[in-house]
């Protein structure tokens, strides 16, 4: 299902990451990546539609993915972590780093939001977060 803007993402939730410009999903499968030999990560699908190999689990501490916290993405079908190391392409974009899947968790597969638009939490989330039984 498509998330409405402002809906918090739970730690442990399966998500799809879609590139807004191309409509393709972050995808992985059991093929070796060209530079590092780790698992290949690519773009797949059309207009946000893809397959089960586009699903990633949000790995974080707490209940929800906090915008200022570190997060990992674990591929739901192959269990690799979305990672980046020092391998760089010469073409087509000189200096672009290879993003790939790694079997083990490490400092190379922590991600943190660096820019974007902050969306206020939905009213449902606010009620859930601050509701207390008497």
From TrEMBL:
- Superkingdom of origin: Eukaryota
Q: Tell me the ranges covered by the MIR domain, including all copies.
A: 6-61, 62-116
The record's listing under Pfam families reads:
MIR
For this UniProt record, give its keywords in alphabetical order, as a comma-separated list.
Repeat, Signal
Q: Which InterPro entries match?
A: MIR_dom_sf (IPR036300), MIR_motif (IPR016093)
Q: What is this protein called?
A: SDF2 factor
Q: Specify the species.
A: Baryphthengus martii (Rufous motmot)
Gene designation per UniProt: Sdf2
């Amino acid at each position: 299902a498509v998330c409405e803007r402002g809906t918090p993402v739970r730690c442990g939730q399966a998500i799809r990451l879609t590139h807004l410009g191309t409509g393709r999903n972050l995808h992985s499968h059991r093929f070796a990546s060209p530079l590092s030999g780790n698992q290949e990560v690519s773009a797949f699908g059309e207009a946000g539609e893809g397959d089960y190999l586009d699903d990633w689990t949000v790995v974080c501490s707490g209940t929800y993915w906090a915008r200022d916290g570190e997060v990992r993405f674990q591929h739901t079908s192959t269990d690799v972590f979305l990672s980046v190391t020092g391998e760089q392409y010469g073409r087509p974009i000189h200096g672009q780093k290879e993003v790939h899947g790694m079997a083990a968790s490490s400092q190379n597969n922590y991600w943190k939001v660096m820019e974007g638009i902050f969306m206020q939490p939905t009213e449902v989330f606010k009620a859930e977060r601050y509701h207390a039984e008497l």
